[in-house]
Write a structure and sequence with these properties.
single chain, Metal Binding Protein, Guanine Nucleotide Exchange Factor, Chain A, 11 strands, globular, DUF427, DUF427_sf
Length: about 120
């Protein structure tokens, strides 16, 4: 059975914009990511999520897992683990066209890593 594939629209908007500030991600006292190229994804009424380029993530601090989830708006999500937080990082390696900008970017669950935008703490 095929999975539903939905387009963002007025009832479920998704916007992706450059964050425009430095974003750092820390976990377990270590800097996992540090970038000035983050994207802010705002989906419907959910809190905004910071997506950071994989190129700006310390590869020694994340490990790919076989866990996956599905979003009808974005596609199949792949997961990575932080040293003490399994499946706490996700990204869309082949996102749907409507959110193609997040290809090559990952996001972090806010209860597993601290995501900071410039001088403030982000929701995610």
């Amino acid at each position: 059975m095929s999975k539903p594939r939905l387009q963002p629209g007025p009832d479920h908007p998704i916007t992706i914009t450059p964050t425009g500030s430095r974003v750092t991600v820390t976990a377990g006292g270590k800097v996992v990511a540090d970038t000035t190229n983050a994207l802010t994804l705002q989906e419907a009424s959910y809190p905004p999520v910071q997506y950071v380029p994989l190129a700006d993530v310390d590869p020694a601090l994340i490990t790919a897992t076989d866990h996956q989830t599905y979003c009808p708006y974005k596609g199949e999500a792949s997961y990575w683990s932080l040293p003490d937080a399994p499946n706490s990082v996700w990204g869309y390696q082949e996102p749907y066209d409507a959110v193609a900008e997040i290809k090559g970017y990952i996001a972090f669950y806010p209860d597993k890593a601290e995501v900071r935008i410039a001088d403030r703490t982000a929701a995610s």
